[in-house]
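**Discrete fold encoding**
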Amino acid sequence: MTYQECIDWLFQQLPMYQRTGSVAYKADIGNIVLACQKLGNPQNTFKSVHIAGTNGKGSTSHMIASVFQEAGYKTGLYTSPHLKDFRERIRINDNMIGQVEVIEFVNSNKEWFTEIGMSFFEMTVAMAFHHFSKQKVDIAIIETGLGGRLDSTNIITPDLSIITNIGLDHTNLLGDTIEKIAIEKAGIIKENTPVVIGRNQENTIPIFKKIAEEKNAPLIISKARTLKTDLLGKYQVENVSTTHTSINTLIKKGWNISDENLKKGLLNVQKNTSLKGRWTILNSSPLTVCDTGHNVDSIKWISQQIKETPHKQLHFVLGMVSDKSIDKILFLLPKNAAYYFCKANIPRALDESELKKLASKYSLKGTPFSSVKKAFSSAKLKANKNDLIFIGGSTFTVAEIL
């Protein structure tokens, strides 16, 4: 198979939560256990950090990876979803896994992957673990895909577990309360392994403390820090604090990371890891920004950031997926804006006319477009140099712009 044939097979033959929704979610980790056993349990051959949470886990993963790179460590980074290229998910020192490696892995394992019914996400996790082991990374920063307890990544024995924060997202799969979701995320807490909690939330800390005590896992609650990062967006303040606390914890475990490594790592996240889609500035005149934030907690931050960003008129290119808390999100969005409702090119995307209809209940006015590209083109035509164009509502909306 060619590289493109491998990618087409990965996407088309197996369910993938990010594209199709809950039908692709598996409530067990049996397949990834079987797969890794057949591969020789590669996840046991390298050190790791495991990160879960509703928001911030992607930024925090990239920050920590950047710090380790500045400290001279060969650093693997596994994240999801990708924005443009499948290989973004699996990196070593910001080098994406090669096309040849993807081809070899799929060709070697396709037959028995099919036999045991591996999902898209299970296969990418197995591919990442195999690649990191083969390349002998010093450490791999592993971000969960969905939840924690039953996530395919949850077969590693990390040096540190991190839970960034808990919000209401994927409630149809993880539970309809903060407490239920916290229990799922807490599933990454391991025996005798420290866990850093990124946000001190009144209704989740007792849950984390109880589970940590049962597993004799030292629990560290992140404290506010003032270090700077090159990642824009007010919400990064919390992720910086979580990263700082996590690095200090890892230093105590013997990792050789200096204060200078920490500072430079935080200031060079984009350079070291190619992270995009977090208050990413695409143009300065008019100011054009995109952000992948797509749940209630992240939309609160984004709405506040927009409010504090000087501009005359707001042009909001908005595309959403159909299985989110759409009404709760629309309620939080700025009223005084011209909206360009659009539909990303994935099965889960909400129809642009339906989105416009729902938005009208919250006094959000605009025009529907059949594609993200058409919506963005219209916004650029209508915006003046002192206006603000914002693109968001979904990772997939942003992906089509970048």
